[in-house]
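agent: user wants the structure for HNH endonuclease from Brevibacterium salitolerans. delegating to structure tool.
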Amino acid sequence: MKTLVLNAGYEPMSVVSFKRAVVLVLAGKASVLSADAQQPVRSERLELDRPTVIILTRYVKPPETRTVSLSRRGVLRRDAHRCAYCGRSAETVDHVMPRSRGGQNTWTNLVACCRTCNSLKGDRTPEEMGWRLLIDPKPPRTGRFWLREIEDPADGWAPFLALGQAA
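agent: tool returned. relaying C-alpha cells verbatim.
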C-alpha cells in the first residue's frame, strides 16, 4: 500500500510506503489528508486509519538537480508507449546510435520502439534507414511534472494530483 506525499503547498512530492507515512505523521512532520478506515494500523497502544494521502507540515524546497534514473520503463513512459519511428504501440526500447557503434544507454540515445521497427533497423542508424524520429529523445522533466504521470495512482489521489496541477 502506497501513500501520496504532498508538500505544504499541496504539490505532489513523492509516493512512499504506508509505513513511512505513519512514521512521518507520528513524528509530527506530516498530517493525514485522506485515510483508509477499512485497513487500520494497530499497535499495542494506538490505532489509526492507514494514510493514503499526507501533507508535510513545513514546506520543503524540491531539489532542482533531481534527475530521473534511466530505465526501460521510464523510456516507454517518456515516449507515451509509442514507437519513435512509426508511431504505433511500442513494447521495447531501441538505441538510436546502436551499441555496436558506441551508442550509450542515455536518455538521448534510447527511444521506445515497436518490435517490427526494432527488427528492421537492426544495428543501423535511422539516417541509414531513411527514417526520422517522431520525438526528440531527451531526459524527462523532473519533480511534480514527472510524478503526475504516476502509472497506477490510487483512486483517492485524483483530487490531490489535480490540486498540484493548478499550482
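agent: one observation worth passing along. Strands lie at 2-6, 12-17, 30-42, 47-56, 92-95, 110-113.
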